[in-house]
């Protein structure tokens, strides 16, 4: 199998790159907007150059790990977010269809309204409440309207050793402060980037098509995640729970973004470790 990884320099893209490089039966081309030595420059908003890249390399699978991920920044730059998260995905779909490749695309829990009280299933109604969520939903919709072979994987609360994330921010703050307040009224499931990358690779080797969810369970709040991380890091810092209203942000965060991942686990044939165990893996690298 020959793969093309878009966004290979990002936190998720680097994990997927490592998996594919260690796979005996897979060859890959690695591309990013800011390429390294062994990568190709790519801009998914440039339809023509993207088409030439796909035509030249003829991948069986295109993994899209690129995205506009600045949730608050999207409130003032929704057109840019739509260009990358929406129409850039459409460009990928057009190129994938033309060259008979499967497109594996990463989406987000932000496509949901956040007012549920049971885990969201892939088929549940969507209703994003912020510009970032709307831009990611636009990408989903344009991909679903295309005629290419596609797989959408929605995820949430991504963390890993190869990129900035909530946990390393909290750890750095806790090292410098005696106390911290952390939001305790937003519920979701943290996702370990190496596990998500393995899911992407494994699902691409099945006959799967459609929308899937992938996270590490169980559900928790940001406060729970921060407390576990600081405890495992052995840092002495007093944590206090607070409400989202105490930390207003430009973009509305979902109060509930727990995802039902059961169909994905069945499809790939395995269930990921708990997020607590993933945090333990992360601490061995971070501390």
Tell me what you see in this structure.
It is a single chain. The mean pLDDT is 97. The protein has helices spanning 11-21, 47-57, 73-76, 78-98, 131-145, 166-176, 193-204, 222-233, 262-268, 275-286, and strands at 2-6, 27-32, 40-41, 61-64, 102-108, 149-155, 158-159, 179-183, 187-188, 191-192, 210-213, 220-221, 238-242. The strands form four sheets. It has a seven-stranded parallel sheet with strand order 3-2-1-4-5-6-11, with helices on both faces. The chain is globular. Helices cover 40% and strands 18% of the residues. By secondary structure, the protein is α/β, with parallel strands linked by helices. It contains ten helices and 13 strands.
What's the arrangement of secondary structure elements?
Layout: E1 2-6, H1 11-21, E2 27-32, E3 40-41, H2 47-57, E4 61-64, H3 73-76, H4 78-98, E5 102-108, H5 131-145, E6 149-155, E7 158-159, H6 166-176, E8 179-183, E9 187-188, E10 191-192, H7 193-204, E11 210-213, E12 220-221, H8 222-233, E13 238-242, H9 262-268, H10 275-286
């Amino acid at each position: 199998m020959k793969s093309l990884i878009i966004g290979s320099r990002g936190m998720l893209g680097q994990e997927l790159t490592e998996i594919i490089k260690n796979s005996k039966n897979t060859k890959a081309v690695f591309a990013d907007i800011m390429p390294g030595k062994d990568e190709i420059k790519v801009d998914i908003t440039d339809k023509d150059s993207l088409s030439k890249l796909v035509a030249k390399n003829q991948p069986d699978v295109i993994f899209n790990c690129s995205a506009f991920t600045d949730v608050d920044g999207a409130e003032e730059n929704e057109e840019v977010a739509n260009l990358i998260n929406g129409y850039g995905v459409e460009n990928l779909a057009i190129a994938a269809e033309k060259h008979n490749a499967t497109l594996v695309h990463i989406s987000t829990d932000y496509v949901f309204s956040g007012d549920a009280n049971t885990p969201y299933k892939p088929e549940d109604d969507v209703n994003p409440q912020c510009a970032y969520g709307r831009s990611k939903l636009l990408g989903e919709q344009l991909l679903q309207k295309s005629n290419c072979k596609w797989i959408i994987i929605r995820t949430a609360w991504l963390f890993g050793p190869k990129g900035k994330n909530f946990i390393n921010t909290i750890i750095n703050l806790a090292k410098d402060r005696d106390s911290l307040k952390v939001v305790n009224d937003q519920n979701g499931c943290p996702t370990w980037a190496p596990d998500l990358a393995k899911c992407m690779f494994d699902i691409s080797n099945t006959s799967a098509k459609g929308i899937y969810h992938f996270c590490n369970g169980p559900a928790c709040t940001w406060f729970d995640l921060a407390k576990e991380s600081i405890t495992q890091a052995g840092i002495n810092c007093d944590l206090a729970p607070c409400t989202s209203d105490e930390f207003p942000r430009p973009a509305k965060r979902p109060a509930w973004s727990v995802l039902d991942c059961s169909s994905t686990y069945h499809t790939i044939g395995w269930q990921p470790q708990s997020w607590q165990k993933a945090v333990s893996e992360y601490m061995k690298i971070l501390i």
